[in-house]
Design goal:
This protein is of the alpha/beta class. It has 16 helices and 13 strands. The protein has two domains: about 190 residues, 3-Layer(aba) Sandwich (D-Maltodextrin-Binding Protein, domain 2), CATH 3.40.190; about 160 residues, Periplasmic binding protein-like II (D-Maltodextrin-Binding Protein, domain 2, 3-Layer(aba) Sandwich), CATH 3.40.190. The strands form three sheets. Strands 1, 2, 3, 6, 12 and 13 form a six-stranded mixed sheet that branches. Strands 9-8-10-7-11 form a five-stranded mixed sheet, with helices on both faces. A two-stranded antiparallel ribbon has the order 4-5. Strand 4 and strand 5 form a beta hairpin. Helix 7 packs across helix 9 and helix 15 runs antiparallel to helix 16.
Length: about 400
Amino acid sequence: MFRKVAFGVLMVLLLGSLAASAAASKTLTCISGWSGPEMEAFLPVLQAFEKETGIKVDYRIYRAEDLAAQLPAQFAAKTAPGDVIFMWAWFITKQGEAGHVLDVTGLLRDEDFLPGALDPVKSGGKLYGGVYTGKVKPGFWYRKSFFKKHGLTVPTNWDEFNKLLDKISKIPGVKAPIVSGDGVGWPLSDVTEHFIATFGGPQLHKELAAGTIAWTDPVVKGIFEGRLIPLLKANRFSEPIEWTQALELWWQGNYGLYFMGSWITGMVKDPNDLGVFSLPGARGIVFAPDFAFVPAYTKYPEEAKKLLAFLSTKGQQIQVTKGGHIATYAHVAIDSYPPVDREVAELLRGRVALADLDDTVGGEFQAAFWDQLKLLWVKPDRGAEVLETLQRKASKNQ
């Protein structure tokens, strides 16, 4: 009897060891566009997954814009560059409908997340991805020390906002009141969306995303011609500068304000010196979660789904401690956030959380939106032409 029990225990240990060895022999590839400080803040999440499961994870960097061009051809050849890939929600659902993304229905529960957090990666009653932390795009960031040194205060109305920009423009050494982050164009789109949501309201923002109102509508034109374009013509914004370079120049005092997402808190030397304010009267703020999926062509579907589930749940708890991220997982404790991120969360109170407009529309419109805003920033007199182009692209996307 003792021999049978001992043999049984030995077999359990042996099988467990074999299972652990098998897991360790499988290496997953996780892909996102995060590099530099953002990557350094994300790697501890993957390391925690490795420690918990024994499954190795390699991290690779691909911009979403590059993936959008490359993945369809790879999927057609039934291959994929990774096992868990961060990508735009619209792309995930589109590829899921085409059979290129694993259906992970049942892997995650809606009640464990903020209301509607998983909806963007659902289609036809199926779930095609997981949701990660979100990036709030709350408004204009400033250094508290810069404001204190120059006697500046946060504006409470549009007139005060313009007066603030005027005061900053007169500070010796300042090149422009607001630095314009750029790259592929998305930082400019974030600024533009904030103007739309503030002066047109959350409903207008949603209608533009849904394509139920035209970009050439008088209400939309009024926001561009009455609010944004006058600031561009008055050189209140700098010319577009690569966004990480813009961050450094702003931090050095070359510019007074920087419109950027909440991830900025994890990219500066002293987050405690950060302050942020929305445009006065803002009723809606973009809250943009990151989404990830498992390609249908992964060699390790079960292991990849484990990573996707970990990222969507426990991984968020780890990520928010690094700063710059707001959880979509409802069970993340508020005490996990650094103080500056709690301030960001406060800005969401009483305001409508909006989906990122160009990410929601996607397709050709997104690329056109970015390109046309670059044009607008350097040629503000061509505002009418820009809106007409956007409307043509939006019509094609529907």
